[in-house]
Design goal:
The protein has 383 residues and is an alpha/beta fold. It contains 11 helices and 18 strands. It is globular and about 70 Å long. The chain binds flavin-adenine dinucleotide (FAD).
Length: 383
């Protein structure tokens, strides 16, 4: 009998387990992987704010390099700063292991090569089946990624819409379009609201594409266009990212669904590390409160906190639906007006200059204003 069982040892599960174990609760972390964090399924970008606001101080052992922010590049090569909030290219396997090991150092039990096959209510708590064994717990945290068995078995899933992301890793010298200090996001109609990326990572670079598209074909086409020889790749990475998940609730008495399992990724950029850290930490805190007061329904507070957070603001998914309809000529034209600037530089003067040069832009004023609100939200959210 455990106080808590955490299903999945990614960043979200690791954070939840850390909270529970450090509060002294008997916690088990179960993961089907043999080695935590491997194989990696990530471009490994996270903001400094995302780490620090969740109590993680950047550490050399899992930071590959620091970046000064991210730039958005239009099909015509013009660009603007999406964010100048600093961030990092992580070494994801080391990062995931460090969080989980911290939970273990606080007394949690880690079981690898342990696939959970059933989660059901049992005797006022939950029964988890894994590797032919039953584990009973008062609390279960579903941190089992985008195809979460826990969320389905708890009866919380209404619908799940995912996108694919595909990526190659190259040596730095093999990527001619690299910006050593910024993550580059290439937008175009071909990515249908997604994008292609070039993320520097110390001696290597992650280059990929994601969206409601064929990620593999888009990555190959992107590499060809920019003279990157795919034959020189050192690694291939692929996975799915939650795009729009509809869960009736993110919690039930004695249960919470966190990170990708709950679909808590930013639809604007697919980023899920910071949302995973945040939701895992909050779920852990709610579980500690529920266990402390022996009040399983207290876990429902987790659903309320997450839904009120910027991570699940409907503006993000509303806006990405609009972006999906934008043609390259429009993206090029707007980016020309912003070339080399931060979107924050859009004031009355910049707007007037753009309207005088391109009067048709007025027809899109509502979309553009909403996009500025969206970018503000993403900055507040800390990407
Ligand atoms: C190609 C790609 C690039 C990405 N790039 C970025 C990026 O640059 N920045 C960013 O912020 N996000 C990025 N993401 C998204 C990010 O990787 C995820 O949002 C993040 O990993 C979510 O963390 P998590 O802990 O919720 O889930 P995961 O990291 O998916 O962890 C879930 C864990 O659950 C385990 N599990 C699943 N089912 C079971 C089961 N039945 N029993 C036991 N264990 C189980 C899995 O083995 C896994 O270890 C990217 C995703 C992809 C696919």
């Amino acid at each position: 009998m455990f106080d808590a069982v955490v299903v999945g040892a990614g960043p979200a599960g690791g954070m939840a387990a850390r909270e529970l174990a450090s509060a002294g609760y008997r916690t088990a972390i179960l993961d089907k992987k043999k080695i935590i964090g491997e194989p990696v399924q990530c471009a490994e970008g996270v903001s400094e704010f995302g780490l620090r606001s969740n109590g993680l101080q950047p550490r050399e052992e899992w930071i590959a390099q620091k970046v000064a922010g991210a730039k958005c590049v239009a099909p015509n090569g013009k660009w603007f700063y999406i964010t100048r909030l600093p961030g990092y290219a992580l070494d994801r396997p080391s990062f995931d292991r460090w969080i989980v090991n911290d939970a273990v150092d606080h007394g949690a039990t880690l079981r690898t090569s342990t696939r959970v096959t059933a989660v059901a209510r049992h005797d006022g708590g939950w029964r988890v089946q894994a590797n032919g064994e039953s584990l009973d717990a008062r609390v279960v945290i579903g941190a089992d990624g985008p195809s979460s068995l826990t969320a389905r078995q708890a009866g919380l899933v209404r619908s799940l819409e995912k996108i694919v992301a595909y990526e190659y890793r190259f040596r730095r010298e093999d990527v001619p379009i690299l910006d050593p200090d910024f993550f580059l996001l290439f937008v175009s109609r071909v990515y249908q609201g997604g994008y292609a990326w070039v993320f520097p990572k110390g001696d290597s670079v992650n280059v990929g594409a994601g969206g409601p598209i064929d990620g593999h074909a888009a990555t190959v086409a992107f590499c060809r266009r920019f003279g990157i020889d795919v034959a020189r790749r050192t690694q291939t990475i692929a996975g799915s990212i939650p795009y729009r998940y509809d869960l009736s609730s993110l919690a039930a008495p004695g249960l919470a669904i966190v990170g990708d399992a709950a679909g808590i990724t930013n639809p604007m950029n697919g980023a899920g590390i910071h949302p995973g850290l945040f939701s895992g930490r909050i779920a852990g805190e709610c579980a500690v409160a529920a266990l402390g007061t022996e009040d399983p329904p207290a876990m429902l507070a987790y659903d309320r906190i997450l839904r009120a957070s910027p991570f699940l603001d409907p503006l993000l998914s509303e806006m990405i639906d609009r972006v999906r309809t934008w043609h390259d000529s429009f993206i090029n034209s707007v980016t020309e007006e912003l070339h080399g600037l931060d979107w924050r530089a859009v004031d009355a003067k910049v707007s007037l200059r753009a309207f005088l040069r391109k009067p048709w832009i007025v027809l899109h004023a509502r979309d553009l204003l909403r996009m500025i609100r969206t970018l503000e939200l993403c900055d507040r959210y800390g990407w």
